[in-house]
Design goal:
alpha/beta, Alkaline Phosphatase, subunit A, 2 domains, 11-stranded mixed sheet, globular
């Protein structure tokens, strides 16, 4: 099937007129957001990955539209998800940090209750709404998903969770440690081969399960399935139960986030991969792909495939050192503001409205997914409060093809910062004061951000820095 490469730009004002574009369609689509966790840009077959087959996610791309320059608003989980859920930069409402461990139980930390989520908007428009998987938007009562627009919730509230109950039957588990059993450094494998300890990251595996039960709505449940399997099961059940009405499903897998736990069946499939670290990751990604396939099959079985907008993306770039999750050919990884931390797999499929097999290289951002879904659902939203644009004209090759204005995207994470304007990107990377200097890259010519052009183009560099500083001053950093 022939793919079309579109090199076009879109006007932000398209979002303001979005509902008119759907007047010809009497039925509003169901909406499913499938979010992978820490999945690198270069892993899927549709994004150049060759080692781990991902036929179902690749099939989603082949039947829909794949973006080559799709971004998220943060290079780590919680703020990125907050922006996707609200359609607004997290800097607008001061949710820029990534709660870890006990911080999830801090009553000051969470997606501010003053913010309306996409689930709030769609429920007000008559949709059934459900969240399956990872929340990570606050672990105390005011921030609970059932109070944030979701009718149903099955999953956990914190940043991560073990995939199977302790002691990890049926999986091989890879754990970060600061020392091996003999007190040394390196890698240790248990005699039965079920547990691997590694000191290569210099830290220990977080206490993911502490005060973090699997919940159905608000009640703990004893889940024995691998969580990737369980979340797939619950997502399919939600689709089947709501097949007679419009629905919104936020399917937030925790795969391929740590802790790395590879199921026996999938580990056997990748026995040819010598490095057990990479083999466990491959098993987890394969299971995630299989889960996506089952969700798409549930849509077909219920007759809802054609009228469902399915979105697939990762919440941030791959954690390469921790997981082996590749961002090739991009520079950097999760936590950084080089492309590898921010550019992610980004796919949309809606058979009733979108062409199949289209590849678009126009830069877009996760905020646009929220705007697009709300426009498709004909939800009443204050467009001036949104930071994304409706992608439908771009997706269908319509009015947006005449637009020429470059868009500007902003990123801020502590001392790290970046901004993209057209093909140009400035980056301030590094936690040490001496490393906090700006760099300038032309992404059209240097996708891997290898050549700093700041010294060659000082005026352009100064202008872009001034633009970022203006945005930064307009969004003061909030602290809990």
């Amino acid at each position: 099937m022939r793919c079309f490469i579109l090199r076009i730009r879109i006007f932000p004002l398209l979002w303001l007129v979005a509902p008119a574009a759907f007047a010809a369609d009497s039925a509003r689509p169901n909406v499913i957001f499938i979010v992978a966790d820490d999945l690198g840009y270069g892993e899927l077959g549709s994004y150049g990955g060759k080692e781990i087959p991902t036929p179902h996610i690749d099939g989603l791309a082949q039947a829909g539209v794949r973006f080559t320059q799709g971004y998220v608003t943060a290079s780590f989980c919680a703020p990125s998800r907050a922006a996707l859920l609200t359609g607004r930069y997290q800097a607008r409402f001061g949710f820029e940090n990534n709660a870890i461990g006990a911080a999830n139980s801090d009553p000051r930390i969470g997606l501010p209750v003053t913010e309306r989520t996409i689930a709030d908007h769609l429920r007000a428009a008559g949709y059934a709404t459900g969240l399956v998987g990872k929340w990570h938007q606050g672990g105390t009562a005011p921030f609970h998903p059932l109070r944030r627009g979701f009718d149903e919730f099955f999953g956990f509230l914190h940043e991560g969770h073990y995939y199977v109950p302790h002691p990890g039957a049926g999986v091989t588990t890879w754990l970060r440690r600061v020392a091996l059993p003999d007190g040394g450094k390196g890698r240790w494998v248990s005699p039965e081969g079920r547990v691997v300890w590694t000191t290569h990251m210099g830290n220990k595996e977080p206490d993911y399960n502490a005060d973090n039960p699997i919940l159905r709505d608000s009640q703990p449940v004893n889940e024995t399935d691998n969580l990737t399997t369980a979340f797939t099961r619950e997502a399919c059940d939600f689709i089947r139960r709501h097949q007679s009405q419009p629905f919104f499903l936020y399917l937030a897998y925790n795969a391929v986030h740590s802790p790395l736990q590879g199921a026996d069946r999938s580990m056997e499939k990748f026995r040819h991969i010598a490095d057990i670290h990479r083999r466990i990751f491959a098993a987890m990604l394969s299971d995630l792909d299989e889960g996506v396939g089952k969700v798409l099959a549930a849509l077909r079985e219920t007759g809802r495939e054609r009228d469902t907008l399915v979105v697939f993306l990762s919440d941030n770039g791959g954690a390469t050192r921790e997981l082996t999750s590749s961002n090739a050919p991009l520079r950097g990884e999760k936590g950084q503001v080089y492309e590898g931390g921010l550019r992610v797999p980004f796919i949309l499929r809606w058979p009733a409205r979108l062409p199949a097999g289209r590849v678009v290289d126009t830069p877009v951002i996760s905020l646009d997914l929220t705007a697009t879904a709300l426009a498709a659902a004909q939800a009443t939203v204050d467009a001036s409060a949104q930071d994304g644009v409706n992608l439908m004209p771009l997706l269908t090759g319509g009015a947006a093809s005449a637009a020429t204005d470059p868009r500007t995207f902003y990123w801020r994470a502590g001392p790290r910062a970046a901004m993209r304007h057209g093909d140009w990107k400035i980056v301030r990377e590094g936690g040490r004061p001496q490393a906090r200097t700006w760099q300038l890259f032309n992404l059209a010519q240097d996708i891997s951000e290898q050549t700093d052009l700041g010294a060659q183009q000082p005026e352009r560099m100064a202008g872009l820095i001034a633009q970022w500083e203006q945005w930064n001053a307009a969004h003061p950093v909030a602290r809990p």
